[in-house]
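Entry 12.
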Amino acid sequence: MSALMDFSMPNKILQLYWGYQNFRDPQKEIIVSILEGNDTIALLPTGAGKSICYQVPALMGQGTCIVVSPLLALIKDQVFQLKKRKVPAAYISSDQTAEQQTASFTSLRNGELKLLYVSPERLLNRTFLEIVKDIEISFLAVDEAHCISEWGNDFRPSYQQIEDFRKYIGYQTPCMALTATATEKVLGEIIKKLNLKDVQLYKKSYERKNLALQIVNTQDKIGQIERVLKKYRGSGIIYCRTRNETRNLSQLLKSKGFDVDFFHAGLPAHEKVKKQKEWTSSDSKVLISTNAFGMGIDKENVRLVIHLSPPYSLENYYQEVGRAGRDGNLSFAFLFWSESEFSDISSVLTSSIPTRADYNKIVRYLYSFYGIAPNELPENIFDFDLQEFQKRTELSQSKIISVLEYLNNSGVLQWKYDTSDSLIQLKFPVERLDYHSFGKDSFLMEKIARIITGVFSYQVKINEKKLSETLGISYEHLHSTFIKYNLTGDISYVDGNRQKIYFLIPRSDTLILEDYWNKFRQIQENKLYKFRELEFFIQNKKHCRMRLILGYFGERAKHDCGKCDVCIQKNKPKLSLNELLNFICIEPRTREDIYTEFDSNSVAEIHEYLQELLSEDRIKLLNFNTYSIN
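Predicted 3D structure (C-alpha cells):
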C-alpha cells in the first residue's frame, strides 16, 4: 500500500459493498499486505471470512484480480453474490456457451472487471493466456490453496500448474493463497509450489471456544438425532453420506414433526436455490445434506451440526462443524458412530482404490470406447453411460468413479456426473430450411433456428423442458426428435440428462499411465492415512477434542475446552439415583426423555440405574417405554 494511501479506505469499501463497519482479525492486515505487493498467505478457519480478504483489495487495486478456485458451484455462487452487491465480477468455465465466454473476455479486455474467477485448468488455456497478456492483473488469489499439496485434504494436480501461470504473468504480480485446512507440512508445500517469496503469513487460531464437540458411540443414531433436535433448538445441518440418506432421514423426521428439509448436488438448480434460501432465512429449520452443502454459505446463527456418520478426514470434519456458531454464541456439533462402522468404511475405502492394472484398464478403455488415437484431442462432448462402462470393464463403479474424478480434477478431461442443460448445434446448411427437407419436422427446425442464437455456429446450452414449452410441444417429442437427427448427423446433440465427458488434453499414454498414475497412487494412500487419523480422533476417550484438533493443525493448546464429550465425562458429577428418581417424580417420563435430560451419561449407565430403581420398586414401567413413580 502506498504511503499516501488512506488506511481507512478498506473499511470504507467494506461498509459500502458489504455493510460492515469493521473487519474481523486479521482480515485488514491481510488486505494491507497484498496491496503493498507482498506474497501473502491467509490461513483462516471456516467462517473467518477468507473471501473478503481478496475481494476488498481487488476493488481497491488497479486492474483485475484473478481468483483460482477448484469448485464451479462455489465460483458461481461467489460471482452471483458479488453481482448482487454491484461488484464487477465474472467467471469463465467450460460449461458456458461460446457466447457467454466471449462476453466475459470482452469485459476483461475492456477493464470492466475487478474479479475474474477461473478453475486452475483454465490458467494454461491458450486463448486465456493470449487475452491475459494484454490486461493489467492486480494480484492472483488462490482459494483452497491446500489443493496444491499431495498431503492436502483435496489434492488436485491441476493446482500445480498455477506456478507456471505465475511465471507467465511475472512474479512481480503478488499472490495471495487462502485456506482453512493446512497442517505445517501442507503450508510448506503451498509456499514452495506457488513459489511465494518473502511471504507474509497471517494465521488465526483454529480454536473455537463457543463450539462443543460431542462424539457419541451409539447403535441408535435416529433416536439420538431425535433427542438432540428436541433438546437443542435452532437452525442446523445434518450431514449424511448418500443422497438417499438425506431424503429418507428428512421424510422420517418430518413425519415426527421436525422442521427439516433435504439437500444434495443432484437436485435441480432452482430447487437447490429455493431450499438454501428457505434454510438461510429460518431460525429453526434443519437441512439434511451431503457434503455438497456448506461451501461459501453465509449464515451466522447455525446452532447445531450433526454427522450421521464419520466423514473421511479430520479436515472435512472440522470444516463442516465450523459452519456452526459463527455469531460467537454456544453451538453444538454431534458425530454419531459405531465400532462396526469403522470396519465397514475402511473396507469400502480399501476396496474402492483401483490397482495399477485397474487404473490402466479404465484409462485405455476410455480412449478406445470413443475411438481416440494417440496425440488426438477430439472437439466433441461425449455422452457417458457409467453402467455400460462398468459392464464392459467388469470393474466396480466406485473404482471407475475414483479414476474419472481424479482425471477430472487433474485437467485431463471434464466429467459431469450430474445432469445439466443439454447442448445442441445444427450441422446442416441453413438453406435446407427453405426446402422443408425435414418433412413434418421442418417447421420445428425452423423455429429452433429462429429461437436459439448461434445454433448453426457452435454447441448451445438449452433447457429442454423450457424449450419444449416455448415451442408448444411435449418434452418427449422434442427429446426424441433430437435423438433422431443426432443419429443422422444433421445435428450435434448432447443429452443433459446423461453424464458427459469432454477431453481437455491430447491423448498421451506415457503421461497419463505413468506420471498421473504415480500422483493418483499417492492420493489414494493419503486418503487411507487421513481416515486412520480421524479414526484415532473419534475413538479417543482421554484427550480434549479441541486440543487434538489444534495439535493436528500445528497449534499448541493452553487448556482443555471444557465443552467436548471427553471434558464433560472427566468433570461430570456422578449421576445419583435420587436425581433420576426426582426427575421421574415430577411426571411420567419416557426413556427418550431421560436420555435427553441426562445426556452427559451413557445410555448403559442410565439403563443400569433404571433397573436398580425398578428392582427396589421405587418406580414402575407403564408401557414398556414410560417410567412413573411407584
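Annotation: The mean pLDDT is 89. The chain has five domains: 9-203, 211-337+540-568, 347-419+501-527, 422-497, 572-629.
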